[in-house]
# Entry
Amino acid sequence: MMMFTKPHPAQTIRSSDAVFEVKDLGVAYGRDAASVQVVNDVSLSVGRGEALGVVGESGCGKSQTMLAALGLLPRGGRITSGQVLLEGRNLVDLSPREMRAVRGSGIALISQDALTSLNPAMTIGTQMAEPMIHYGGMSRSAARTRCIELLDLVGIPGAATRLASYPHELSGGMRQRALIAMAISANPKVLIADEPTTALDVTTQSQILRLIDSLRKELGMALILITHDLGVVAGVADRVAVLYAGRVVETAETETLFASPRHPYTKALLDTISQLEDEVSERLNPIPGLPPDPRNPVQGCPFNPRCDYVRDVCRAELPALADSVEGGRHPVRCHVDPFVGLSLTMASGGAR
Amino acid sequence: MSAPAIQLKDVSVRFPIRKGILRRVAGEVHAVDSVSFDIAEGETVGLVGESGSGKSTTGRALIGLAPLAGGTVECFGRDLRALRQAHGALPRMSQIVFQDPYASLNPRMTIGETLKEVLEVHELAKGHDADQRVGRLLDDVGLRRDLAERYPHALSGGQRQRVAIARALAIEPKFIVLDEVVSALDVSIQGQIVNLLQDLQQDRGLTYLFITHDLSIVRHVSHSIVVMYGGQIMEKGPRKSIFSAPLHPYTSALLSAVPVPNPRIERMRPRIDVRSEPPDPSAPLPGCRFQKSCLFATEICRTSRPQLRSMTGRDPDHLAACHHMQEPHVREALSRAAQGAVS
# Structure
């Protein structure tokens, strides 16, 4: 009886929908006095078949969060707090051996630079088949068939002959496609794409983005798309999380975020891109200054030295990630909100 | 209008392909093939194309870093090849800034030493005088003077790129080739560097060739645009008319590939696709270089190379090399894609 009458808090319902969740994650480098906190209280979640965009400048902690989630933090880095949940199972305490079993079939990563991610001394076919044979227990011929199938799926023409190619024989776009084929080879539940198109030409970039997006829909994977370019998330992500100085500063559905950004940093990022389309004579109005150095954390809100809307309280206290007006769908980490949210929306003419 | 600052006429650059242990020349890469355009003094030409289009090689040829296989380059009314023969080196009027400020600065020299070296090599200043000049150069690019003591690794990407710009300015050039100078930087920092470059241009009347694959930046900084593909010019003209009404299918494909920072438009707009891989520069096909990737290619595109021409009823300075650009079905497809990209 109790089971039926007990009210479900909204939070629990959402987390049971999520395939993959990062909860209050903290990442630091170094020990004791020399310790530098690069990720603070980051919480993200993504549902089955959903695409989450994670946006921020270099050094904002977006890649560190994902490396921590995959158990791939470089030497010296450690998780200081929080959980990483894949279908409800906490990955933080897994042994390296258990974690290896999760990577690939649970979570897979597509990294930015396909040339350095691929082994230059192995053919595409050999490096694709290796995990299938060693972890998947496939026979060589079954692995070969599967490789051809995957290369076809990612749009590499002449897949059977390409298996014998070395990475340097492929163009940048083709290498990125091969990397995507490897990432999806064990049917991961979550695909993390870390700046998958940054090193590519603009025409190739749009093809790769559409490929990743169609694979997500076809294979029902959850997708986390990490980028510094808001234009890239506009076409793919269902929701967006904006990171600044190792913290989430705003999350919202993609359309809401673009139409009515509530954090001054998000607003400034959006302005920077749209200004670029203006006339030659006009001066750009970029975000002044630099992102903070994690070794010298800023007192109060980390964005306050660069913020147009700064007040005294911003220099004293770190704002909480909260949503007071949109019922939890659009949390923002800002003291001045929702006042800023409203005036920003009006200033940009309602919908952008 | 006065004579252009920089004038390229039928410029070609070829690189030998060497094979075997004797390194015999087995063929040639046609990196740049009969490229002609002008840059007016104090203005910026945006040179756009994808990797392998020959855009960087063109920029290098302009400052004597790539050998000309044909054609002429005139810099402020003087022929580059003649200058080189007469002086053994090019006079101090042009400079280049590269994409990657991590690779283009010596990691073992401080910023001050890097800048001072330029002044000393060119015998512009020595000793205390040189230190003063270094300080002023850092002021010019908006860096604090105490950064002179630092090494490149202690600087951010944006600061490093400012140092690279200061180094180019050290010899007081009139013309600077900017080769993907903001591509490696964060969007928020790109704006700062673009502003700096535009201020310097206004203060000193600098002439720029801005090489990039990023159309949104080029739109903001350029007076006119040159679009290259497979070593040849596909389209060139004033910025406004290229962006509002591209004539060439490749330009249109480039424009429709740029993500629009608006989810509603981005998900709905029509696209012009580039179908295959870029052409092999060591075995150029007869006809149009873009034929294999073009949605509108027909027999004539495989046999004859289209010449750059203007379109009837349009800006006569806006030229494109396409056999089919006048045809209604091509025009309609391109203008539909262009509308999606601008709105």
Summary: Residues 202-219 of chain A form the longest helix (18 residues).
